[in-house]
Design a protein that fits this description.
The two termini are 27 Å apart. It is built from eleven helices and nine strands. 44% of the residues are buried. Helix 6 links the parallel strand 5 (166-170) and strand 6 (193-197). Strands 7-6-5-8-9 form a five-stranded parallel beta sheet. A four-stranded parallel beta sheet has the order 2-1-3-4, sandwiched between helices. With 319 residues, the protein is an alpha/beta fold. The structure holds phosphoric acid mono(formamide)ester. Phosphoric acid mono(formamide)ester binds next to helix 2.
């Protein structure tokens, strides 16, 4: 959709992290290896970025992504600036372009952006000087690359071999930047069986070109799967008519103690958050032994540390 070549230096190293599309298996594995090393050893002088400035710029609400990026940057000993958009000059009409150019003038090294417009992170990457890396923390319905990376990292902790897995994504794929990034990541990592389970109205047109199999119901779609990736029903992005089954969503697509039995007994359940309990997931499942939902959040710190560390190091040797 957007040019993913923009996120690399001419020698192939990562300059920005804008999308999972086009990100190589080697790049992903390097991030997972670094995250594992970070989780094991916590502090390493090689990962101290004392003079670097990392700015978070969130035009949409966030609990997990903004906070774990902040913790990640702090653990890397960078200076962290959380620009509060609701109290910033954006409210006086300052444009996104002017805001990021001001962050650049403050000698920021990394800008972490969340925005409601698909393509916003690519736009910002075009506006900033060469000395700045941009990380997409979610843009519209397009991409949420660090969410997909932490999800894949969490799966790899449980199952060593992606080439043996059946993975089902359930829910509102139409509005989901997470699902799009997960599908690209699963495909690149070699998952042979990627399923999407959703009502027709919540399936985007481009899905057929992404190599996934679409299932209309949980009973057939969850049969024998290893990994269940739930999505939030994005009621705030829902145009009228997109959800004709309304309150019946939970009855048809909710993951409950009954419907989880369609999957393998060892299946793991993941959700990027925030969850709608009683809409896409039963509380007993969200809090039960199959769920890795809070492990995902914890893994987000190490994965985001690995990404920030990689981008800052790449800036030093940039061509
Ligand atoms: N998964 C995710 O993006 O959560 P937040 O909106 O809380 O950051």
């Amino acid at each position: 959709m957007f040019k993913h070549k923009r996120q690399y230096y001419s020698d192939g190293r990562l300059k920005h992290l804008l999308t999972i599309e086009g990100l190589s298996k080697a790049h992903m594995q390097a991030i997972f290896d670094s995250a594992k090393n970070i989780s094991t050893h916590q502090f390493s002088p090689e990962r101290a970025h004392l003079n670097s400035v990392v700015a978070t710029l969130f035009y949409e609400p966030s609990t997990r992504t903004r906070t774990t990026f902040e913790i990640a940057a702090q653990k890397l000993q960078a200076h962290v600036v959380n620009l509060s958009v609701p109290t910033s000059s954006a409210l006086k009409g300052e444009t996104l372009r002017d805001t990021v150019q001001n962050l650049a003038a403050m000698q920021t090294n990394v800008i972490i952006l969340r925005h409601s417009s698909s393509g916003a992170a690519h736009f910002v990457a075009e506006q900033v000087p060469n000395s700045i890396s941009v990380i997409n923390a979610g843009d519209g319905c397009h991409a949420h690359p660090t969410q997909a990376l932490l999800d894949m990292y969490t799966i790899q902790q449980k199952f060593k071999d992606f080439s043996q897995l059946s993975v089902a994504i359930i829910g509102d794929v139409y509005h989901s930047r997470v699902a799009r990034s997960q599908i690209h990541a699963l495909t690149t990592l070699g998952v042979p069986d990627i399923r999407v389970i959703a009502p027709k109205t919540l399936l985007p047109a481009e899905l057929s070109s992404l190599g996934v199999t679409i299932y209309p119901d949980l009973q057939t779609g969850l049969n024998n799967v290893d990994v269940i990736l739930l999505l939030r029903l994005q009621q705030e992005r829902m145009q009228s008519g997109k959800l004709p089954i309304g309150d019946n969503y939970y009855r048809h697509y909710g993951l409950t103690e009954k419907t989880l039995r369609y999957a393998k007994p060892t299946a793991i359940v993941m959700h990027p958050g925030p969850m709608n309990r009683g809409v896409e997931i039963q509380s007993e499942i969200a809090d039960g032994p199959s769920a890795l939902i809070l492990e995902q959040v914890t893994n987000g710190i190490a994965v985001r540390m690995a990404v920030i560390d990689m981008l800052i190091k790449n800036q030093r040797g940039s061509p």
